[in-house]
Amino acid sequence: MNAFALKIAAIAGMTCNHIANVFGASMPEAPTVALYMVGGLTFPIMAYLLCEGYRHTSSVRRYAERLALFAVISQVPYSLLFGGQGNVLITLLIGLGLLRVLDCGNNALAKGAAVIGGVGLSFFCDWGIVGPLLIVLFWHLHDRPRGSALAMTVVALGLGIPALSQAVADPTPVTLGALGYYTVGFGAATVLILNYNGQRGRPMKWFFYGYYPTHLLALWALTLLL
Fold it and tell me: What's this model's pTM, rounded to 2 decimal places?
């Protein structure tokens, strides 16, 4: 799979996940759980492609500026739907900053402080502290055989075991969906990432940037109509 195909999978999963989060309470249980499962594709692919983008970009500064611009644009519709936490583009921007810090200089203490600071800041964003940690894992394990699968396994176990416990104790659509998110969704994301061929594919980066705030705004408009 090329990067374009991975991005299509990511935005499909993102849309499904947000539909489940916004409308799941009024939907039948099975479709809600299925939407959450598909949603598990999203962030792992986004985190992985961020690392690929960092590796191949001609300008980290311009890359960061694009993320920052659309993070600001997206925050209003995101807040209308999900409250005041930072949207996922802010999480990705923090992750990009950490990659830059870790990739430059030799001061281990400064790098450690930067990671702690970035992870702490991401606590207030979508995906919390797990987001930048997965990005850093992808970056440091990318040159190992099946390194991406190892990074995914670490995060899937860390999130999936508590999700399993909650689903067993209280099997609601939300808890079952969360379990499917971290098992089925993460598993499918891992397979897709492992089949990435390193090719860019169709150059439609502005579409993918623009889709995020646009679909959030559309979902918010639907909440007013339904």
Answer: 0.94
